[in-house]
Amino acid sequence: MKVNMFLEKLIPAENRYREIEQLMTLPEVTTDGKKYTALVKEYNGLTPIVEKFREYKAAEKALRDSAEMRDDSTLDRELRDLAEEEYAEYSELLKKLESELKILLIPKDPNDSRNVVVEIRAGAGGEEAALFAADLFRMYSMFSTKERLNLELVNVNDTELGGYKEITFNVIGEGAYSRFKFESGVHRVQRIPVTESNGRIQTSTVTVAVLPEAEDVEVEVNSADLKFESCKSSGAGGQHINKTESAVRLTHKPTGIVIECDQERSQLQNKEKALRILYTKLYDMKQKEQNDAIASARKTQVGSGDRSEKIRTYNYPQSRITDHRINKTIYTFEAFLNGDIGGLVDELIAFDTAERLRGDGE
């Protein structure tokens, strides 16, 4: 990407930035909450780009000024040498700012700021897979706390030994999807199961799906296509037994999607949660259809979100965790399982950004 291409993209962005500043002072805008909120959101999105562009323009001007002084034969040698040093410094600064602008110009994932619905399901491995599903849920619960995000249970299908055949929960807070989206895929665990008497290492799998929560206005749902039923909680009981009377099963007839919610004490609350999950699943289907329809869409390995893709291995005997997408092995095993996964999340985001940046340059 050449500098003049920056200018082509950034001059209109700066003009729009100034326009929004003017619009947000108009009475007809300040009194219209919806319009004002939309403008603030657009303004905040443009701010880092415009500020960096202004830094770039200031550095570019300083570079020209130092070049003029360096080449001015009427100045003494000492001033020209100083101008030469400044020229070299501003040249390096421009390269740095150019790289930063490239990253800022990469289109943002429009879902990054959304809440998420996370579904964890035990895969191959029977009871051992269910126990590991519980370990992953604990890890994500602690990670949510560290990220100052709120976690809200939707549905739990537990086992007698304390594992989960399936568990669904919401993660609520600004940027939740950006922090969880790379967890989608197959998580593989290698360890000696508590149910194994002869000490053999077993390999089990758990699938994780991370869906950006949808607003009800983004998908159309006909009430005639919905079927609500009262049902009993599908878990082993325990802490959920007092909620079985209010459990709800929602079926979306056109797609066959079935959602169960059993974590609230009232049937109405479970019904509302089930509808939120349905909107999210339909939004996810809609997005996939749109992405599949765009032949030129690039699908990077780290950001594919393919739920059949093995993304990570947790090896208990060797106390190591390997993320296969970036070939990263972590030995802070216990801390990671206690929710200290933010460092890896940052590396996955950086890798994905670099891949998309490289794609833009191809």
Characteristics:
single chain, 362 residues, alpha+beta, Alpha-Beta Plaits, 2 domains, three-stranded antiparallel β-sheet, 9 helices, 11 strands, 47% helix, flat
Can you describe what's shown?
The chain has 362 residues and is an alpha+beta fold. The chain has nine helices and eleven strands. The protein folds into two domains: 103 residues; 232 residues, Alpha-Beta Plaits (2-Layer Sandwich). The protein is 47% helix and 20% strand. The strands form two sheets. The chain has an eight-stranded mixed beta sheet, with helices on both faces. A three-stranded antiparallel beta sheet has the order 6-7-8, covered by helices on one side. Strand 7 and strand 8 form a beta hairpin. The longest helix is centred in the first third of the chain and has 38 residues. The protein is flat, with a radius of gyration of 26 Å. The termini are close together. About 6% of the residues have low confidence.
Number of strands: 11
Q: Indicate the structural class.
A: alpha+beta
What is the CATH topology assignment of the largest domain? Alpha-Beta Plaits
Distance between the termini: 9 Å
Give the total of domains: 2
Mean of residue pLDDT values = 83
Oligomer: single chain
Helix content: 40-55%
What's the shape? flat
Radius of gyration: 26 Å
**So how many helices?**
9
How much strand content do the residues show?
15-25%
**CATH class identity of the largest domain:** Alpha Beta
| Topology pattern, helix = H, strand = E | HHHHEHEEHEEEEEHEEEHH
CATH-derived architecture of the largest domain: 2-Layer Sandwich
Biggest sheet descriptor: 8 strands, mixed
Low-confidence stretches: 238-243, 293-306
Spatial strand arrangement across the major sheet: 2-3-1-5-4-9-10-11
